Amino acid sequence: MIPSWNYASSVKTAPQIGDTAPASGLQLPEGQSTVILLTRHLGCPFCEREIRTLVDLAKQASNSDTRFIVVVHSVPTYELSKFVTEELQLQVPSNVTLHGDAERRVYAAWGLGELSLLDIINKDIISQVGELKKQGIANRLTRGTRWQTNGAFALNKQGRITYSHVGKNSGDTADLDKAVSSAQ
Q1: pTM of the entire structure?
Q2: Are the beta carbons of 177 and 60 closer than 8 angstroms?
Q3: Options 3.40.30, 2.40.160, 1.10.3210, 1.10.1740; which CATH number does 34-43+55-183 get?
């Protein structure tokens, strides 16, 4: 594996259903259902699809009491906001928080390490990227490291994990509908 840059020193074990959220530097709301999405990097078509899905879910009236947090390691928070609003042209509802994690401390606390070369690119993943391109989602300028894995977690109002997903490869994305419904 090619080493990447700016990686937090130790990756913890990913929290499982029933666990409490790890101390990670994220400000988690108390007494509110929360869905946390940690993307691989900006420019990743799989990450773009997850961000679009999360924003769509956050806009639904039935999810207005749920907090959504998008974490990305590749840029500071203000650049993430600019990417989402200008490049992806999404209107971010007030129940969505964008968070830059340049040192990848949040990723390490939530158990998200790095992928191998075969986890990033192989025949199946290339096929999935082709399908996304048909939907208008294509590779963009990469900001960050492609080696970072993704993940998503949901917490109920009591602060317990109700959904836990750690990507096994670059195309293994979270079921955000399931994450939202598990937390409510």
Answers
A1: 0.89
A2: no
A3: 3.40.30
